Amino acid sequence: MLQIMEGSHAVAEAVKLSRPQVVSAYPITPQTHIVERLAEIVADGELDADYICVESEFSALSSCLGASAAGSRVYSATTSQGLAFMAEVVFNVAGMRLPIVMTIANRSLGAPLSIWNDQQDSLFLRDSGWMQLYAEDAQEAMDLHFIAYKAAENHEVLLPAFVCFDGFILTHTFEPVDIPKQEEIDAYLPAFNPYQRLDAKDPISFGMYATPDYYQEFRYEINAAMTRAKKVLREAGAEFGEMFGRDYSGLVEEYRLDDADTAIVAMGSVCGTIKDAVDEMRDDGKKVGLLKLRSFRPFPYEDVRTALAGVSNVAVLEKNINIGSRMLGAVGLEVKDAVYKNGTPVYSYVGGLGGRDIRRKDVKMITEWAETGRNDCFFGLREEVL
Amino acid sequence: MADERPEFFESGHRACGGCGPALAGRLIMKAAGENTIVVASTGCMEVFSTPYPETAWKTPWIHSLFQNAAAVASGIESSIKMQGRDEKVVVIAGDGATFDIGVLCISGAFERGHDITYICYDNEAYMNTGIQRSGATPYDASTTTSPAGKNSTGNSRPKKDMPAILAAHGAPYVATASIAYPTDMMKKVEKAINTKGPCYLQVHAPCCTGWGFDGAKTMEIGKAAINSGLWVNFEMEEGTVTKVKKVKRVPVDDYLKSQKRFRHLFKPEPKTEEIAKIQAIADKNAEKYGTDIVPKN
Amino acid sequence: MALNVGCSARPGNARDNKTGSWRTFRPVFDNEKCNKCGTCMMICPEVCISEDEEGYPQVDYEFCKGCGLCTEECPKDAIEMKKEEK
What we know:
The structure holds three protein chains of three kinds.
Chain A: E1 2-6, H1 7-18, E2 22-25, H2 32-43, E3 50-53, H3 57-69, E4 74-78, H4 80-85, H5 87-95, E5 101-106, H6 120-123, E6 131-134, H7 138-153, E7 161-166, E8 174-178, H8 182-188, E9 205-206, H9 215-244, E10 252-255, E11 262-266, H10 270-283, E12 288-293, E13 295-297, H11 301-307, E14 313-318, H12 330-339, E15 346-350, H13 360-371, E16 377-378
Parallel strand pairs in A: 2-3, 2-4, 4-5, 5-7, 6-7, 11-12, 11-14, 14-15, 15-16
Antiparallel strand pairs in A: 1-8, 6-13, 10-12
Helix pairs in contact in A: 1-2, 1-7, 3-5, 7-9, 10-13, 11-12
Chain B: H1 20-32, E1 36-40, H2 44-49, E2 61-63, H3 69-82, E3 88-94, H4 95-101, H5 103-112, E4 116-122, E5 148-149, E6 152-153, H6 162-167, E7 173-178, H7 182-194, E8 199-204, H8 208-211, H9 218-228, E9 234-237, E10 240-244, H10 253-257, H11 272-289
Parallel strand pairs in B: 1-2, 1-3, 3-4, 4-8, 7-8
Antiparallel strand pairs in B: 5-6, 7-9, 9-10
Helix pairs in contact in B: 1-7, 3-5
Chain C: E1 8-9, E2 25-29, H1 39-43, E3 49-51, E4 57-59, H2 69-73, E5 79-83
Antiparallel strand pairs in C: 2-5, 3-4
């Protein structure tokens, strides 16, 4: 049954259904509605969890790390400055192979201070060893949490996961969502079965330091686990589809791409706008389609290469800026690498930073730019800086 | 008589010969026992005891980062509580991790009231990185970042009063101890672990390499610190000092002279003004805690 | 061979590292003087002095680094540091 609810509350419901034993978070806009709702859920006894009200994001993820190592399923949520503040722990969690799931309510990074959306925050932790999944709408944001836990906790993976959804655009808007039943989620996502845990009955030393004789091999193994995560994510998404009727077996999603000349590549809520723009351009006789990336880490380069095999131009809409790189966007670099052997031109168009609206006309404009071979650049800039 | 309690800190670690912190680790674990989860901060003890794949720890042990041991311990305590388990969670962290970089996490954990014991092994500087000063470094100690020189008499600030800061958080039990008095120290470890709520124990752990003395003298230096009044062993319960080790105090000079980190105060000739300032710190400690044994008339 | 996930290890294998090779002086115990007080066993940072069947201290020279702490603290002066013969 569909219910109308705020995106943040939908995510809180997903967390409740995932039954974490420990929740630890620090409030930051626009993540607050998730953690406020979770606090209510715990206070009302709807979720049997210990909710740790920490003094900082740094402690939020650090306490999650401890709880996960002790054998609990755990949850946290943050964004932007909070994520940057916990960055040291972010790398540490992945290195210790702890399957923590954390929601990122995507927001820009200061300075200048901005509370509004782009995807710079999660993308700057590209190399941290966390899976990064991006949701287009509240339903997908909700569902990706179950899939994230299932994949992260798989002993072939044992890597943490960000579930990213756009701040305000998705966190604060109301949408109809289908909320699974607890028994259905329990069947999909059984109780946490840790690979190893801190336990006086079976002691281990955990998080030791590695000399040059070993360090490199630990990084190799994290990368190998991330590569295995592709298959595990696909299978978890397919199983979810079989049980709940919403298929997430693809790490990418194609929209009207079959005979397209130009493909737009994007992640997150802007894909909704792009789909509308594609429909309008199709009505005008333009052969254009969308490739939505659901997973940025692991990066599904085989899927991207296959999906873009028939197109002549690729416009990557970037809600991040890879400062100092000719390509400008972090996503474009990956896409370009994926299609390199096809020889297809790939352009990075940066916009929507710090909450700037991206409209259908912007999407049409960058489509034209790609068609005419315009170089990587910003779009929608105020004229006074040009 | 040998102490019959089993050892949970193993031979083969890579600490310097005569290492105070290594002895602290051993004694803490002897007192804590097998039902203990140890949370370590990055630092000397972490590094000398756990180069992969060799570990000196026989109970569960975890290290995450330099400054987050108190937060990691919070999460472990929360998790084992939810699982209905009863292990004790004990942080063992150095003074840099405790006095400086970890204060945020410690303050949060103590304010939230987690049932954890936080033990700082205090060797009064960042020893693992090469003897840089910390908030625990005593006044006038020469370190690699507070070197004595033409315009410097060493570390320009007195030691931070960390026990008072944690007592102010409402910690039910705060105490100081020294590896020079193992029985007393182990009693305090047991008391802290068995007191519900966040407890803090600060253990004086002389570092032969960092302070500049012969490793055979580690215990002697620890005793001398207490006899000089520059280190005070005390217990605070619910914010009130309930027990203090009384001493027949001696002037600070001998304690200072015995360590290379204070040698500049005596060479080429004694810097009497500076020594007097250090004596004043000891006098103030003695007055504050009432450590002096007063001869009966 | 795969590494242990999360850089972890089973307890006790620090004993693979025989720190006795660091030693330049060795503690030698005189049981005539020893009163079996246990101080040396309690304060050894290497955890390498234990009690023999008669209650006297015995050193595990595989791990003793020769720091001399036991010698310094022995109340009966029953321990002497002797230079290792090469």
